[in-house]
Design goal:
There is one protein chain. With 251 residues, the protein is of the alpha/beta class. It has a single domain, classed as Spore Coat Polysaccharide Biosynthesis Protein SpsA, Chain A. It is 25% helix and 26% strand. A seven-stranded mixed sheet has the order 5-4-1-6-11-8-12. Strands 2-3 form a two-stranded antiparallel ribbon.
Length: 251
């Protein structure tokens, strides 16, 4: 399985900071935000990773990360043409990179304590979503479960009246068909290709599963969640802060 980190977008909720720097390079305590999704993929056993970002940010990512890292991590980069094209639009840039393989997609502002190695190792086909119980599911995609609670009927994007207290977190597993599915999507009312619509396509084919996320999770996309993430990272940080770029990752 290969990994795709979606690290573009406009980051408007973090203006004015994101007017001068890509959101995913902002510090979360003592490490740039992008370090955390890289860690998540590495802990999941994924070593070949594509970072999809904006044209104005790719040079900064490459200066910080390069293309080879500790523990055999290989990095590639793709430039998303439209900063506001949506998550599914960003994922489609990974088609040649994936070369038919399964992909784990993670949003670059998502910080997880949860380990996904078991789910990655068990994945065979279709799509798997990861849900977290939250106090404000209206901010996210929210699942609508079937009556028995064992399957998902659909996922609603930022619903006014969520049908469950769960959020659709920014970690996804897809088989190689995801790229053909994205080609069938139409822009939403926001003018974006929505990853929720791609996931709902798998649900319609009865090829979707879900798991629950345990431990800390944050999307770090607002000032409040960025501060919360930094406080969590501070508690987990080693007494000796890493000094080398390569040591910032894969703990």
């Amino acid at each position: 399985m290969k990994g795709i980190i979606v690290a573009g977008g406009l980051g408007t909720r973090l203006h004015p900071l994101t007017k001068i720097v890509n959101k995913h390079l902002l510090p979360v305590y003592h490490r740039p935000m992008i370090s955390y999704p890289l860690d998540t993929l590495a802990r999941s056993g994924i070593r070949d990773i594509l970072i999809v970002t904006s044209k104005g940010a790719v040079d900064a990512f490459m200066r910080f990360l390069g293309d080879e890292m500790a523990q055999g991590i290989k990095l590639s980069y793709a430039v998303q043409e439209k900063d506001d094209g949506g998550i599914a639009d960003a994922v489609r840039y990974g088609e040649d990179f994936a070369a038919g393989d399964h992909v784990a997609v993670i949003l670059g502002d998502n910080i997880f304590e949860h380990h996904f190695a078991d789910a990655v190792g068990a994945f065979k086909k279709g799509a798997v979503s990861f849900f977290k119980k939250v106090p404000d599911p209206r901010r996210f995609g929210a699942p609508v479960f079937t009556r028995d609670g064992k399957t998902v009927a659909r996922i609603e994007e930022k619903p006014s009246h969520p049908k469950s207290p769960y959020a659709h977190t920014g970690f996804y597993l897809f088989d190689g068909r995801i790229f053909d599915i994205i080609k069938t999507l139409r822009p939403s009312a926001r003018g974006q290709l929505e990853i929720v619509d791609a996931t709902n396509a798998y649900i319609a084919m009865n090829e979707h599963d879900f798991r629950l996320v345990h431990g800390f999770w944050s999307d770090a996309g607002t000032f409040e969640s960025l501060m919360q993430s930094s406080r969590w990272a501070e508690k987990r940080a080693s007494p000796k802060r890493p000094k080398k770029k390569i040591d910032l990752l894969i703990k």
